[in-house]
Design brief:
Layout: H1 2-6, H2 12-23, H3 42-52, H4 64-75, H5 86-154, H6 231-234, H7 242-263, E1 277-281, H8 293-307, E2 311-317, E3 326-336, E4 339-350, E5 353-359, H9 375-390, H10 392-395, E6 408-413, H11 419-428, E7 438-443, E8 451-452, H12 467-470, E9 471-474, E10 478-482, H13 483-490, E11 493-496, H14 499-504, H15 508-511, H16 515-520, E12 525-527, H17 558-572, E13 583-587, H18 596-607, E14 612-617, H19 621-633, E15 638-642, H20 646-655, E16 658-661, H21 671-677, E17 681-685, H22 688-693, E18 707-709, H23 714-730, H24 732-743, H25 750-764
Parallel strand pairs: 1-2, 1-6, 2-5, 6-7, 7-11, 11-12, 13-14, 13-16, 14-15, 16-17, 17-18
Antiparallel strand pairs: 3-4, 4-5, 8-10, 9-10
Helix pairs in contact: 3-5, 5-7, 8-25, 9-11, 11-13, 17-20, 18-23
The protein binds adenosine-5'-diphosphate-glucose.
Adenosine-5'-diphosphate-glucose binds next to α8, β14 and α20.
């Protein structure tokens, strides 16, 4: 066997890996047979594919013997499978190699011809576009909305499960006369328990003539046109079997390879063959809607995933009139608490990400109060949002092509969208649909769980036996209904936003009643520290530092730029402009979590120091009142800005010398990351993500990034802040070192995105 292998035109590593596949040597064993080969020379890849001959099972699932037998069957002919092939098999192998070479040459030829034809077609198109550009684009828009209408009609439309009607939904076409022109199947709705309906009016298309929009190229799932699937399944990436999916992945790779050969550009995506369709679903998304860190994450993580080559969508509610998203022309009706509610989908493509906004009267004009209203109001909004979001991949054709369910992973965030994994299971997977779609639930803050009386279960439209997922008992709330609990149990994977918080969640203090469930599901939990949007939060190009005396700055101009921002901040807030007086900032929600009361306890000490304190926040009314009071009592030293102002947050981050974060618990914390990127030194309670991200300053070896204190205690805060102020005043070089180390870290999302990708892959291959 090895003799045969050694005569093959593989590199040494490839041989080692194939040998590992055959003999079970894990050291060289690639995770999946095709992944390791993608970036190799085309010839070698093609040969290897030939070698495996579309043998698409994940090698993990194959025994070495199985592979050996398959190898012999493919290379030396079926007769050699049972006997020892010997010389005959060597000859057959040589013949096979020769054949493969010929096939490759022919393939190359063909590709060249295709390339020439494409060039010809595009030059003809270009000349036509000059004169008919507007007509063309209108036509394209019309075509895509036809596609979209069509996908909707056969999409996850109306279906009941065995327990009767779960939800009813009807399509409300914008224009009744729209007819599908290009989609391969129509009216293939799904009825009881996913039973297939006959597919009618099938118009087959030649996939080679349907060139996906440029931004989708190489990342969209391969479309398999099928006559006997419901239409929404027929337009997805042929994933009736993960083995097929793997093979599809291989074919997709081949296409990408050939495309890039043709165009002679485009390096492979960073994600390699792990490229996936990802839909992040969040109740808020910056810059359109934000009450805190969740909005920041939803606005920036998807872009980093897209940069790695994934096709990424964000789904968020549309709370106001946003400039960018356009009405996608789709209307759907969902049942919420027995009422029909119509939603409309809006859409924009920005920085490589599809942003889809769900608009309906329930969301309208609450941008300033996203979580406002009573418990039932919020619950109903989240039910509607999750029902609508889980169907987005069927209804909203981004760039003209719906995501479908192939290679698809949803990323839900916090309790607001924890119903999504449950709906995915109850409405789809339990009915044999979306079998290979996975869901990940990200915990940004376990303190908010979507709790209510057990009777709330009647609102969520789920089969009765699902009640056990939601039912939870704890000494504080007694027996109650808990949405986060159900999401955590149902999601394929769970992520939280730091390693420290992942540990804390398993303790009674940190798990807020859910620690039992988290411990039971420990195997699927992973901590990934958030990144920051380095375009949005970057002193070199921060748009909020270009007026009112502020200035952009970098590490090189820190010594002039930062003092200028500090002076501008002091001036803007009416504080005495003293360059040598340290400015301490605080930005955050005014609540128990953020430890504002610890700052309050430390105020008498602080005002005795030569410092200025600037606090920005909204939240609990008593704490807002407290901020106002501090300001009025210490006009020359304290500013308490009650409100939500992104611009002021940026300016404080740039102008302050020190950022205070005495949070009682902090799953990750973004402000300390922003601060370090601006040369502002954090003083934090070493908890959750703060402990993960702020290495304490060590004056002996001049290492570390800030000051930490180990318990939520005002005296500890004072002690840490005192040391910090002393260093600021007395040890300028150390201070500059702290600033430099903070500013030169890679805080971008790129590393975190890579970690998320590992979770996506783990979810994908999980049963
Ligand atoms: N009054 C105000 N005006 C303007 N901007 C304001 C503001 N108050 C807060 N912000 C901004 O909101 C964001 C707050 O983010 P954090 O991560 O610090 O906390 P939050 O508790 O909201 O997030 C939760 O989710 C995130 C994301 O995972 C975790 O980092 C965190 O630990 C967890 O509690 C920052 O961008 C901050 O500048």
């Amino acid at each position: 066997m090895m003799a045969s292998l050694s005569s093959l035109p593989f590199t040494v590593e490839t041989k080692a890996e194939i040998s590992a596949l055959l003999h079970g040597n894990n050291r060289h064993r690639p995770r999946f047979p095709f992944v390791a080969y993608r970036q190799r020379k085309y010839k070698e890849v093609a040969f290897y594919k030939d070698f495996t001959c579309g043998f698409s099972l994940c090698c993990d699932k194959l025994s070495g013997e199985h592979l050996r037998r398959h190898w012999r069957a493919q290379v030396a002919g079926p007769e050699s499978v049972d006997g020892e092939g010997g010389d005959e098999s060597e000859d057959a192998l040589q013949i096979s190699i020769e054949k493969s070479k010929k096939v490759l040459a022919a393939q190359k030829d063909l590709l060249q011809q295709i390339a020439e034809r494409r060039k010809l077609v595009s030059s003809i198109k270009d000349s036509v576009i000059d004169t008919t550009e507007n007509e063309e684009s209108n036509q394209q828009k019309a075509d895509s909305s036809k596609n979209l209408e069509f996908a909707s009609s056969g999409g996850a439309g109306t279906f009941d499960n065995q327990n009767g009607s779960i939800f009813s939904e009807s399509t409300v076409p914008k224009t009744a006369d729209k007819v599908s022109r290009t989609l391969p199947s129509a009216a293939g709705g799904v009825s009881n328990a996913g039973e297939k309906q006959p597919v009618q009016n099938i118009t087959k298309i030649d996939p080679s003539t349907e060139i996906p929009p440029k931004h989708l190229k190489g990342t969209i799932s391969r479309t398999v046109w099928s006559d006997d699937l419901p239409s929404f399944l027929a337009t997805t990436s042929g994933t009736s079997d993960p083995n097929t999916e793997m093979h599809e992945g291989l074919l997709g790779t081949e296409h990408e390879e050939t495309d890039s050969q043709i165009e002679d550009i485009k390096p492979p995506p960073l994600a390699g063959t792990n490229v996936m369709n990802v839909i992040l679903v969040s109740a808020e998304c910056a810059p359109w809607s934000k009450t805190g860190g969740l909005g920041d994450v939803a606005g920036s993580l998807p872009k980093a995933l897209a940069r790695r080559g994934h096709r990424v969508m964000v789904v968020a509610p549309k709370y106001d009139n946003y400039a960018e998203p356009q009405d996608a022309g789709i209307r759907k009706i969902y049942k919420v608490a027995g009422q029909d509610v119509e939603v409309t989908y809006f859409q924009a493509f920005i920085d490589g990400v599809d942003f889809v906004f769900i608009e309906c009267p329930m969301f309208r004009h609450i941008g300033n109060n996203i979580y406002g209203g009573n418990r039932l109001d919020i619950l109903k909004r989240m039910i509607l949002f999750c029902k609508a979001a889980v169907e987005v991949p069927w209804h909203v054709p981004c760039g003209g092509v719906c995501y479908g369910d192939g290679n698809l992973v949803f990323i839900a965030n916090d309790w607001h969208t924890a119903l999504l994994p449950v709906y995915l299971k109850a409405y789809y997977r339990d009915n044999g649909l979306m079998k290979y779609t996975r869901s990940i639930l990200v915990i940004h803050n376990i303190a908010h769980q979507g709790r209510g009386p057990v009777d709330d279960f009647s609102y969520v439209d789920l089969p009765q036996h699902y009640i056990d997922l939601f039912r939870l008992y704890d000494p504080v709330g007694g027996e109650h209904f808990n949405i986060f609990a159900a999401g955590l149990k149902t999601a394929d994977r769970v992520v939280t936003v730091s390693h420290g918080y992942a540990r804390e969640l398993k303790t009674p203090e940190g798990g807020w009643g859910l620690h039992g469930i988290i411990n039971e599901n420990d195997w699927k939990l992973r901590g990934i520290v958030n990144g920051i949007d380095t375009r949005e939060w970057n002193p070199q190009c921060d748009a909020h530092l270009t007026s009112d005396g502020y200035t952009n700055y970098s590490l090189e101009t820190l010594h002039t730029g930062k003092p200028q921002c500090k002076a501008a901040l002091q001036k803007e807030l009416g504080l005495p402009i003293h360059p040598e007086v340290p400015v301490i900032g605080f930005i955050g929600r005014l609540d128990h979590q953020k430890g504002v009361d610890l700052i309050a306890e430390a105020i008498p000490w602080m005002v005795g120091q030569d410092v200025q304190l600037i606090m920005l926040g909204t939240g609990r009314q008593d704490l807002e009142q407290m901020l106002r009071q501090f300001e009025s009592q210490h006009q020359d030293k304290i500013r308490g800005w009650v409100g939500f102002s992104v611009r002021t947050a940026h300016r404080i981050t740039a102008g302050a010398d020190i950022l205070l974060m005495p949070s009682r618990f902090e799953p990750c914390g973004l402000n300390q990351l922003y601060a370090m990127n601006y040369g502002t030194i954090p003083v934090v309670h070493a908890v959750g993500g703060l402990r993960d991200t702020i290495q304490p300053f060590n004056p002996y070896d001049e290492s570390g990034l800030g000051w930490t204190f180990d318990s939520a205690d005002a005296n500890k805060l004072i002690h840490a802040l005192g040391n910090c102020l002393w260093t600021y005043r007395e040890y300028k070089k150390s201070w500059e070192g702290l600033q430099r180390r903070g500013m030169t870290q890679d805080l971008s999302w790129d590393h975190a995105a890579q970690n998320y990708e590992e979770v996506l892959v783990a979810a994908k291959y999980q049963w």
